[in-house]
Design goal:
This protein is an alpha/beta fold. It folds into three domains: about 325 residues, Rossmann fold; about 210 residues, Thiamin diphosphate (ThDP)-binding fold, Pyr/PP domains (Rossmann fold), CATH 3.40.50.970; about 150 residues, Rossmann fold (3-Layer(aba) Sandwich). Helices cover about 40% and strands about 10% of the residues. The protein contains 26 helices and 17 strands. The chain has a six-stranded parallel sheet, with helices on both faces. A five-stranded parallel sheet has the order 8-9-10-12-11, sandwiched between helices. α7 packs parallel to α8. The chain is elongated, with a radius of gyration of 29 Å.
């Protein structure tokens, strides 16, 4: 079948006569790789059982060629968004990333110090003492040398790292999202996103979905560098190769990429610098508008002494013979020794704990430093390449394309209209609309004022979840980098919540557009959770003073029992439980509006708080816009405190009721409340619109809004799970009486929303009866309790 992507076999990508590298250049790269491999071995030795030496080592040459030959970037300015990026989708290769970053810094320190910025923008050799160390570490050298705490998988706490990666498949999807953000910002001459991965990292389903999105969108600024070594933790034959079947998948990596319309460049020997550099330069010349994958055939653990899966997550024991043999080339076969690891002196393996081992670790790192100082010819040559990378970047003079979005306008409008919706979004009581459509219109207005800074994707539900509305003022159809760059709708693999969340997290992480995704809450909440978590981790890891991380917005549409005709597989009450209060305070906001007029104030207020992750829960059916004043209900802007008094009691209040979710609240307001009032029951009614917005208030304000004593006397009514009410309903009696979809111990059947509510005992009549029974029980117990 014809493909837009081209296939470049290993013979075609071979270097021409004379090769791409002069003799002295190749010698410099060989020296770099020797020191790099040795440094990886040292890292594993002194931080045993930490990291993946095999994959870090096998990918060293492809990384070195990218950093010292292919990328345009400025070593002094890791925050520049006009620079090319090397993104480690293979987060388990963090050991290699840290080693290569530290060697690059050493090279600049020795031969091009003008390239270096302040320590906060560097990863120094000294920082390797923090490999897989907690920030609370207090060992003497870690403290005195001001070492960084380096996570086991990369995060933006490390310079030049834009994403938190490592969770299976998310790194590929989010790196592709970075590329979309760069392409949308700069147009044809945009930064390239180079992605380091291994074949095992291609096996998660979300990766195939993300590759499809990149190929479909003609995302030509993506270049994957695939370390193809066939080794995982449990297998030495991950993929089919030739006539040998794979243990896990029956494709060769090139087939997977080419299926999705990528260019494929094969490299027969990924340990041959001539072949590696020639292939990268060949790939850079391909100009057909499609993404490219370079597949380097390598051996995991090459020259480490352990190869294949034996080196995946394990290595030589502390100061073992194997370790010393691995370092033989670095130490000139014993002419320079690691004194603490010699057979005669195994001080680091003896008593003394972390302090002694840290001293030994530092001694070994100084051997690396001294070796580089002895190799100044190679160091100077490599340093000139770092200077050239900066000069190439500056020479490109990349500017934002004409008409590029201005995402700051989103937050400016949210600040300006944080409580009251702009005139064009105001709703007239007595009209009818849906929560999803109101959210879509609100986001559309933000997209208008920011000239398209919201890039939207949906699991084949653009119209059904109303997110197509967000992009209605821009070019129709799906975004394509070549043919439709002004569209604001992304095509991400079809019904693929996994990839949608991953790709959009990368769009937001790039910092120039906001990724907005939608699907049924039943699917978006669980399938988007991992990508959202990594996005939040990345946002928190950003250094102080860096640009704000833009929020990832995942709309949990068709939420709750009102989607009952789809049955329990889709009308899932549990979705909120998976996200609400499940992230560090301040990083995430879930929104559960019940009435359309609450949408704008909740959304705008949330945006002013700049969380990393926003998850609105909105329903599908049409509902009336209520005259809240006439009904004695709080105004819509009261919702911005997260928990608010929806209906105050006339006097002292006979019963406290806490509501959560739209369908049950409409049933309460329109059916149960009139019946209670008719019986003379004076109800104090609260609504939970966002647990996280409530948490953002000062403690005294929270106590003022919802005093603790009310929680001990309240009964709850929720369209979500009982556990989402535990915070608001604190007594055993209140929890036993609380109404929720699982109260009868089974998943509910299908049918119109009101029928499913009735089956669950959440319709207005059932609520009325349950509240009366609870009040009667409380009154019966009161004398004994007193």
């Amino acid at each position: 079948m014809p493909r837009r992507g081209v296939w470049v076999g290993a013979e075609e990508s071979m270097p021409q006569a004379g090769g791409p590298l002069a003799t002295e250049e190749r010698a410099a790269f060989e020296t770099l790789d020797l020191v790099y491999r040795s440094l990886c071995a040292i890292l594993y030795n002194y931080v045993p059982m930490s990291g993946h030496p095999g994959g870090s080592i096998s990918s060293g040459r492809l990384m070195a060629a990218a950093l010292f030959d292919s990328l345009d970037y400025d070593l002094a300015a890791p925050e520049r968004d006009d620079a090319d990026v090397l993104s480690f989708a293979a987060g388990h290769k963090a050991m290699g990333l840290y080693a290569m970053w530290a060697l690059r810094d050493e090279i600049a320190r020795l031969a091009a110090p003008e390239l270096l910025a302040g320590d906060e923008k560097r990863l120094r050799l000294e920082d390797l003492l923090g490999f897989r160390r907690n920030p609370t570490t207090t060992t003497p050298l870690f403290t005195s040398l001001h070492s960084r705490a380096l996570d086991g998988h990369p995060t933006p706490a490390t310079p030049f790292v834009r994403l938190a990666t490592g969770a299976s498949g998310v790194g590929m999807a989010s790196s592709i999202g970075l590329a979309i953000g760069a392409q949308d910002r700069y147009g044809p001459d945009c930064p390239r996103i180079h992605i380091a991965e291994g074949e095992g990292g291609l096996t998660p389903g979300r990766v195939s979905e993300a590759l499809a999105a990149a190929g479909t969108a003609s995302l030509s600024n993506v270049m994957v560098h695939l370390d193809f070594n066939q080794a995982s933790i449990d297998s030495d034959q991950v993929c089919r190769e030739g006539d040998v079947r794979g243990d896990y998948v029956q494709w060769e990596p090139g087939e997977l990429f080419h299926l999705h319309d990528w260019n494929v460049v094969q490299v027969a020997d990924g340990h041959d610098f001539e072949q590696v550099v020639a292939a990268q330069r060949h790939a850079m010349r391909i100009d057909n508008g499609q993404p490219t994958a370079i597949i380097y055939r390598t051996r995991k653990g090459w020259k480490y002494g352990l190869e294949g899966r034996a080196s995946h997550g394990a290595g030589h024991k502390l100061c073992s013979v194997g370790f010393n043999q691995t370092l033989g080339e670095l130490t000139n076969d014993g002419i320079v020794t690691l004194p603490t690891c010699s057979p005669e002196n195994q001080r680091c393996a003896g008593p003394g704990g972390d302090v002694i081992r840290e001293e030994c670790f530092w001694s070994a790192l100084q051997v690396v430093r001294h070796r580089l100082e002895q190799e100044m010819t190679a160091v100077r040559l490599l340093a000139t390449r770092l200077v050239a990378a900066r000069d190439r970047l500056n020479g490109r003079d990349r500017l934002a394309r004409a008409g590029a979005p201005r995402v700051e306008a989103v937050f400016e409008m949210a600040e300006l209209h944080s409580l009251r919706a702009p005139e064009e979004l105001r709703l007239e009581p007595g009209t009818r609309t849906t929560l999803r459509e109101t959210l879509g219109r609100s986001l559309r207005r933000l997209n208008q004022v920011s000239h398209g800074s919201l890039l939207t994707a949906s699991a084949d539900l653009l119209g059904s979840t109303s997110v197509a509305t967000i992009a209605a003022d821009f070019d129709p159809g799906y975004w394509n980098a070549l043919t439709n760059p002004d569209s604001r709708l992304l095509s991400i693999g079809g019904i693929c919540e996994d990839a949608i969340a991953g790709v959009l997290s990368g769009v937001s992480a790039y910092g120039r557009a906001i990724g907005v995704g939608s699907s049924y809450g039943a699917f978006m909440a669980p399938l988007g959770h991992i990508s959202a978590r990594l996005h939040v981790i990345g946002a928190q890891a950003r250094p102080r003073g860096s640009n704000h991380c833009l929020p990832l917005i995942l709309i949990c549409g068709h939420a709750g029992l009102a989607t009952g005709e789809d049955g329990p597989t889709h009308a899932d009450p549990q979705a909120l439980q998976l996200l609400q209060e499940n992230f560090p305070v301040g990083t995430t906001v879930t929104l559960t509006p019940w009435e359309p007029q609450e949408i704008w104030p909740l959304l705008a207020t949330t945006l002013t708080r700049r969380p990393a992750f926003i998850a609105p829960f909105v329903t599908r059916p049409e509902v009336p816009v209520l005259d809240r004043t006439a009904l004695g209900l709080a105004e819509p802007d009261a919702a911005v405190t997260g928990v608010y008094l929806l209906r105050p009691p006339v006097a002292d209040g006979d019963v406290t009721i806490v509501l959560q979710e739209s369908a049950v609240t409409y049933a309460f307001v329109t059916e149960a409340l009139p019946l209670l009032l008719n019986d003379g029951i004076d109800a104090r009614v609260y609504y939970v619109a966002s647990a996280e917005l409530f948490d953002s208030l000062a403690p005294e304000r929270r106590r003022e809004i919802f005093p603790e004593e009310y929680a001990f006397e309240a009964i709850g009514v929720t369209g979500f799970t009982l556990s989402t009410m535990y915070r608001w309903i604190r007594s055993d009696a209140g929890r036993e009486a609380t109404l929720h979809p699982y109260r009868h111990g089974h998943y509910l059947g299908s049918g119109q929303g009101e029928v499913v509510l009735a089956e669950a005992g959440l319709d207005g009549i059932s609520q009325y009866r349950a509240i009366k029974n609870y009040l009667s029980d409380v009154r019966t117990r009161a004398p004994a309790d007193s």
